[in-house]
Amino acid sequence: MLIQTNEKFWSGRTDSEMNRAAFRMHQVIQLSAPQERVNNKTCTLIGFSSEEGVRRNNGRLGAAEGPNALRSELAKLPWRMPAECQLMDVGTIVCEGNQLEQAQAELGAAVRDSLEKNACPVILGGGHETAYGHYLGVREFIGPDAKLGVVNIDAHFDLRSYDEQPSSGTMFKQMLDTDENVEYLALGIQEFGNTDILFDEADAQGVSYVTEQEITSGIMDEILQKISFFIEKQDYVLLTLCSDVLNSAYAPGVSAPSPFGLDPLIVRTFIQTIASHKKTLSFDISEINPALDHQNQTVKLGAYLTNEAIVALLRGRIT
């Protein structure tokens, strides 16, 4: 079910009502979906209020409150984009009861609609089951034959079996099992956050991945080259961020905190690099859990990283 966003979540300091150079995000947001084709400098925000996938995966609940919490922090940020750039809030897909698959299909339809209107969708999750609805919309838009690179910044592979039911731990296996034109790159994999069977599944599926330890002890230029090589093989790219990839000192408010997680500056670099690429269509952020947060620090960090994605997506489209 799609619910229109309450304008109360888009409020903040106003330094000027006339001078655009002083505007913050709450002053430029449009609370509507595009009704017709827009210029290619538009981002649409789509909320996905779901934690059913997290519940099925035996995770800590609270991520369903993520979308509006992120909006409230995004609202305060300066809007430092050219006048032709637009930001539109489509509203929030709410997962009713345990109807996860229906909600994911609805999210897919909203993502597809934004892409058809020439906008860049930015999805505010929600548990990481958000990524599958995101994927459904992108795949429907690009058609079955295009090569789609799915880049996941995450501590976990999320390649679990879905024989019983899909969850927030199964999305990428669902994609790989049913779509021969998907390739999967995971960045930030925790060596002791995934069992041997998940590493075996990743190898069997031909997944490309870089572990957290390789990232923190490696040379960033080499890792960025690996990302670039992966992207060049694709026709289109989808970017998804699971917030549990972040070090828990910076991001305690997630379903599965990572004491050895990545520094936010590394994650920012990945987002800037991937989202600014001309092949990247869209971005989602998942697993922000306000109920488990400390002084709103995870929500605030999530908003800053989302803003980086918005800026990179829009600047990547400006010639």
Automatic annotation (TrEMBL):
Its EC number is 3.5.3.8. Pathway: Amino-acid degradation; L-histidine degradation into L-glutamate; L-glutamate from N-formimidoyl-L-glutamate (hydrolase route): step 1/1. Binds 2 manganese ions per subunit. It holds the Pfam family Arginase. Mn(2+) 2 binds at D154, H156, C242, D244. Belongs to the arginase family. GO terms for molecular function: agmatinase activity; formimidoylglutamase activity; manganese ion binding. Keywords: Histidine metabolism, Hydrolase, Manganese, Metal-binding. It comes from the Bacteria. It catalyses: N-formimidoyl-L-glutamate + H2O = formamide + L-glutamate. SUPFAM superfamilies: Arginase/deacetylase (SSF52768). PROSITE patterns: ARGINASE_2. The keyword Manganese applies. Catalyzes the conversion of N-formimidoyl-L-glutamate to L-glutamate and formamide. Its cofactor is Mn(2+). This is Formimidoylglutamase. It comes from Sporosarcina newyorkensis 2681. The keyword NADP does not apply. GO terms for biological process: L-histidine catabolic process to glutamate and formamide; L-histidine catabolic process to glutamate and formate; putrescine biosynthetic process from arginine, via agmatine. Mn(2+) 1 binds at H128, D154, D158, C242.
